[in-house]
Amino acid sequence: MARAITITSGKGGVGKTTTTANLGTALAMRGARVAVIDADIGLRNLDVVMGLENRIVYDIVDVVEGRCRLRQALIKDKRLPELCLLPAAQTRDKDAVSPDQMIDLLAQLRSDFDFVLIDSPAGIEGGFRNAIAGADEVVIVTTPEVSAVRDADRIVGLVEAAEKGTPRLIVNRIKPRLVSRGEMLSVEDVLELLAIDLLGIVPDDETIVTSTNRGEAAVYDQTSLAGRAFLNIGRRLNGETVPFLDLTDQPGVLDRFLGMFGRRRS
Amino acid sequence: MSDLMSIKGGRDGLRIRFDDSAEWGLLLEQLEQQLNQNQAFFNGASLALDVGERTLTTEQLTHLLNLLQHHGVVAEALSAGARETRNAARTAGVTARPLPRYPDSSPQVSPDAEALLLIRTVRSGQVLRHSGHITLIGDVNPGGELIAGGSVVVWGRLRGFVHAGALGNVDAIVCAMELRPTQIRIAEQFATTPQEAGPHRPEVARIAGAQIVVESWEAFKK
């Protein structure tokens, strides 16, 4: 039976879709059967980030409205046969699917997969409600910015009110140099406010931009520090204990991180 | 508060209990007066209505609901002994259901002597509203709100919005382990926290000379 995990954030643009694509790939690379669902109906992106846009025939709304069977809408990943995408519809909006329909959909997927990852739209309205409706667990993505953390806090409250348990947190796009200069919130600052368990820390990394645009997950790139961070988060989701990449205190890691940008430590 | 109706806050929210024998028109008049006097407390609140054994028509209930809505109050449930009233409630668009019983409190106790104790985090977008005192063990995050008829005690960081004495009590105080609210109100007064971060120590806010003053707990207890 699959675990259904919703990736959400409240604020837009903090990296939900990139996180979903990379975690799905990371889990499938370790042999798990994974389905990723794009619940951002009307603004679909997950297919683009995974490089599967040109293979879409049916989407989630087609399934819900009975125009195809679920199996026909699932798109196999280019590299990993264990990984499938259920794309969002681009020509409809969030009202095209109801929370009950999401729960039904997940019930059908559960028996064939080990993980179902649901990429939530930004916001706290219907689309978000759909995305968490059938979830067993919720993962919140935030960047170390006051506005994103404020929205994450709001989401934690809503997830708890929906009785989905306490969500876990991914802090995305940390810039260790700014943190050490006191110009960016640290992971500790974020955790102190949100008071939830940390699932992972992902450094700000330019390789994400290129991998996202190419439609290839960063986890394939062993030189990408963000890719390594996502691999580790995938392992943690799988129940393994993996130490966090310590980006601020260990000069070794920091040097490597800065080295990727071709800079020297000042 | 009026002796014809009582407004109480509990774990499940606010509740108005209307006197069984008083004339309905008089009750509505008093309710409107309460709502006008305590706008800061009631705006955005949701209330449960307990009309006792009284029989009310759909028109009477609609009038009541409109009055509440006009003051930003949502009636989330209605408890009525009479079947006619329950039917009228359904037509008027409010859920009729029995409300959980509160333990009988003696009538001598003033409403703001009743305190609510909660152990949780009040997160952004969450509002804790109570007609008496609020004691919170946990943090109030930015964007979270505490609104109390009485005083507010936060055993934690208070970084959201707080309004003590929201029913007009100028003697209400606010104390917190770390008192850094985005805005603080006591009765009609309000203040903001200065930008520069002071030392993190327990502090108490109260009204002195028509403004809110904040002092350390050490200074306050003398």
TrEMBL record, chain A:
GO terms for cellular component: cytoplasmic side of plasma membrane; cytosol. Gene3D superfamilies: P-loop containing nucleotide triphosphate hydrolases (3.40.50.300). The keyword Nucleotide-binding applies. InterPro entries: CobQ/CobB/MinD/ParA_Nub-bd_dom (IPR002586), MinD (IPR010223), MinD_FleN (IPR025501), P-loop_NTPase (IPR027417), ParA/MinD_ATPase (IPR050625). Keywords: ATP-binding, Cell cycle, Cell division, Nucleotide-binding, Septation. Pfam families: CbiA. Residues 5-216 form the CobQ/CobB/MinD/ParA nucleotide binding domain. ATP binds at K11, G12, G13, V14, G15, K16, T17, T18. GO terms for molecular function: ATP binding; ATP hydrolysis activity. PANTHER family: SEPTUM SITE-DETERMINING PROTEIN MIND HOMOLOG, CHLOROPLASTIC, SEPTUM SITE-DETERMINING PROTEIN MIND HOMOLOG, CHLOROPLASTIC-RELATED. ATPase required for the correct placement of the division site. Cell division inhibitors MinC and MinD act in concert to form an inhibitor capable of blocking formation of the polar Z ring septums. Rapidly oscillates between the poles of the cell to destabilize FtsZ filaments that have formed before they mature into polar Z rings. Belongs to the ParA family. MinD subfamily. This is Septum site-determining protein MinD. It comes from Candidatus Viridilinea mediisalina. The gene is minD.
UniProtKB/TrEMBL annotation, chain B:
Interacts with MinD and FtsZ. Residues 6-74 form the Septum formation inhibitor MinC N-terminal domain. SUPFAM superfamilies: Cell-division inhibitor MinC, C-terminal domain. The gene is minC. Residues 120-214 form the Septum formation inhibitor MinC C-terminal domain. Cell division inhibitor that blocks the formation of polar Z ring septums. Rapidly oscillates between the poles of the cell to destabilize FtsZ filaments that have formed before they mature into polar Z rings. Prevents FtsZ polymerization. It comes from the Bacteria. It holds the Pfam family MinC_C. Signal peptide: none annotated. InterPro entries: CAP/MinC_C, MinC, MinC_C_sf, MinC_N, Septum_form_inhib_MinC_C. Gene3D superfamilies: 2.160.20.70, 3.30.160.540. This is Probable septum site-determining protein MinC. GO terms for biological process: cell morphogenesis; division septum assembly; regulation of cell division; regulation of cell septum assembly. Keywords: Cell cycle, Cell division, Septation. Belongs to the MinC family. The lineage of its organism: Bacteria, Bacillati, Chloroflexota, Chloroflexia, Chloroflexales.
